[in-house]
Design brief:
The protein is mainly α. The strands form two sheets. A three-stranded antiparallel beta sheet has the order 1-4-3, with helices on both faces. Strands 2-5 form a two-stranded antiparallel sheet. A hairpin with a 2-residue loop joins strand 3 and strand 4. The protein is globular, with a radius of gyration of 27 Å.
């Protein structure tokens, strides 16, 4: 830390700092909480950020910062006071850091202004103002505010009242010992995998241990995000780990339960795969709806207004959060039922609970979409196209087919294709080429559904229909094959494909766009994989080769998407974010 005599001296000192380092400019008269400065100066997610009296710039904003500082110096004089004239619009902009923040924004550089709440951050100009600022600072416990802000603002009932009251202190304990959120996330994953292994023993003791360990894993899962917020340790790797490990833990636990059940003489692999399919389809409904309306304008939906009104009544907020069976409630239910009942009952409860939650959330989204008047942007249409995951076959159809017109045409065509594909897998003779013909119809209808930009009121339903078609087809064909271990192999294939779809979601959320087209083409797109599984079922009818083929396909997809995903998330182009997303 160095002290500058005036604005000109500050410009010279900043220019001497190596280009790859973050810099900060703080008015020496600053009065406030340490955590206010921490929020303004140390968050890695923003190129530039400011609080009253302080400003920071990451390397990518250093050039703009120096230009703004030099313009300020030229305007007020190198040796001018750090306080600007009283004609400035806001008191916090009268300091050199405040003026520079305004200049940065005028140049086009986004400057983050974090919400400080009860924290104090100000630059008093006389003794009386300083005394008042110091009094306000001393009245608020900086550490208490920091602990409260470590907890996610909107969370489920179980997480809010059964986990967060003590997990925040675990987060602080970890921070004081130098542990990182990524280490805690990894510990949560390892604990969940051990829980899955305990469930796989198929013994009552194993089930009890699995339930306890699953809850411990969830505590750690809450702690990693709280640690990131407490210590502002956001990172690209953390974004990737946090975005994917929850699904890996849950699906590994499903597999552990299925293995344990088989050891006890009860094959529940179909239920396990069904639970995974339902959960993944629930999520893609949420993701698609949110992306379709991420930047929608002119929202006049009375359903949204009613929802906002309900959120103003305390008990309805918690009731509505519990109805959707978020991760806290879901994992608590799984843990308790694992310890006290059987895997079959666990999966029945999951399927029933998640089905009711899916009906509730989807119905609400449909009502909002049908009753709102909004113009959806090109960005929203592109996000839906990326989430659709159309491969070369569907893209080829879309390229030669005329765009179908009509407000609800795209989702209707996608639904028709989904019904044809799933109906063919369910009701046509297994192993026959009629199922392959149904897959060919599905390919054509999939291409027609995406032949025009997805800007209709219900076009956000297209990706969920495609997910259901692919996942359910794989489940049904594996279950009907009567080939040993076909369903576990199908479980692995759906898990690999679902990872690709979740990876797509989190890349879009980070603002970097979907995975590259070569990746989508390499793994075939949803319609290509669905058609391939239908062909494999026809060619390898009632043969052990079907299991081998599904396993090989699962391994190939997993390798391609994991290698590209890891390359992206550890690269400098990945966004430095920490997911605050839905109550997944």
């Amino acid at each position: 830390m160095q002290t500058a005599a005036d604005a000109g001296d500050a410009a010279a000192l900043l220019a001497a700092v190596p280009a790859g380092r973050r810099v900060a400019l703080v008015d020496p008269r600053f009065v406030g909480h340490v955590h206010a400065l921490r929020l303004g100066l140390t968050d890695p997610r923003f190129a530039a950020a400011t609080v009253p009296g302080a400003l920071t710039a990451q390397p990518e904003a250093r050039g703009a910062l120096l230009r703004a500082l030099r313009r300020t110096t030229a305007a007020v004089g190198a040796g001018a006071p750090v306080v600007a004239p009283d004609t400035d619009p806001a008191p916090e902009d009268r300091t050199v850091p405040g003026r520079i923040a305004v200049a940065l924004e005028a140049e086009g550089t986004a400057v983050k202004r974090p919400e400080l709440g009860s924290l104090t951050a100000t630059v008093p100009t006389d003794a009386g103002a300083r005394a008042a600022a110091e009094s306000a600072r001393d009245e608020v416990d900086d550490e208490a505010v920091r602990l409260r802000s470590a907890v996610k603002a909107h969370d489920g009932f179980f997480t809010t009242f059964a986990i967060s009251p003590y997990s925040r202190y675990i987060a602080r304990w970890c921070a004081r010992r130098g542990l990182t959120p990524n280490q805690v996330t990894t510990a949560s994953l390892i604990t969940a995998l051990v829980a899955a292994g305990a469930a796989a023993t198929g013994t009552r003791g194993g089930y009890v241990a699995a339930g306890i360990l699953l809850l411990v894993s969830f505590v750690l899962d809450c702690t990693d995000g709280q640690l990131a917020r407490y210590s502002l340790q956001y990172s690209t790797m953390g974004a990737w780990l946090d975005a994917t490990f929850d699904r890996a833990k849950e699906y590994a636990y499903y597999a552990g339960l299925a293995i344990g059940a088989v050891r006890g003489g009860d094959d529940v692999w179909v239920l396990a795969l069904g639970a995974m399919v339902l959960q993944a389809c629930r999520h893609v409904v949420d993701f698609s709806f949110n992306e379709a309306n991420h930047d929608a304008v002119a929202n006049t939906s009375p359903t949204a207004a009613l929802s906002d009104k309900l959120d103003s009544v305390g008990w309805t907020v918690w009731a509505r959060r519990m109805i959707v069976l978020p991760i806290g409630e879901r994992w608590a239910m799984i843990a308790v039922l694992t310890a006290l009942t059987t895997p079959r009952i666990v999966f029945y409860a999951l399927l029933i609970g998640c089905s009711l939650a899916a009906c509730y959330t989807t119905a609400g989204r449909l009502l909002r979409s049908l009753t709102r008047r909004a113009s959806r942007t090109d960005r929203a249409a592109q996000a839906l196209a990326d989430l659709a995951d159309s491969g070369p076959l569907a893209q080829g159809v879309a390229a030669v087919a005329p765009g179908l017109r009509g407000a609800f045409t795209a989702p209707a065509v996608a639904l028709l294709g989904t019904l044809v594909m799933i109906g063919g897998a369910l009701f046509l003779p297994y192993g026959g080429w009629l199922t392959v013909a149904a897959a060919a119809v599905y390919v054509v209808l999939s291409g027609l559904a995406v032949a025009r930009p997805l800007k209709g009121a219900l076009d956000w339903l297209v990706p969920p229909f495609f997910r259901a078609a692919e996942y359910v087809t794989i489940l049904v064909l594996a279950a009907r094959s009567d080939v040993p271990h076909a369903v576990p192999a199908a479980f692995g294939l759906v898990a690999a494909v679902a990872y690709h779809h979740y990876d797509t979601v989190y890349r879009i959320r980070g603002g970097t766009g979907a995975p590259p087209q070569w990746l989508v083409r390499t793994i075939g797109g949803h319609e290509g994989r669905t058609a391939l599984v239908a062909v494999l079922a026809a060619v390898l009818t009632h043969a052990s080769g079907f299991t081998t083929a599904l396993t090989a396909l699962a391994v190939a997809v997993a390798l391609v998407v994991l290698v590209e995903s890891i390359r992206f998330w550890v690269s400098s182009s990945a966004p430095a974010v920490h997911d605050e997303g839905e109550l997944a």
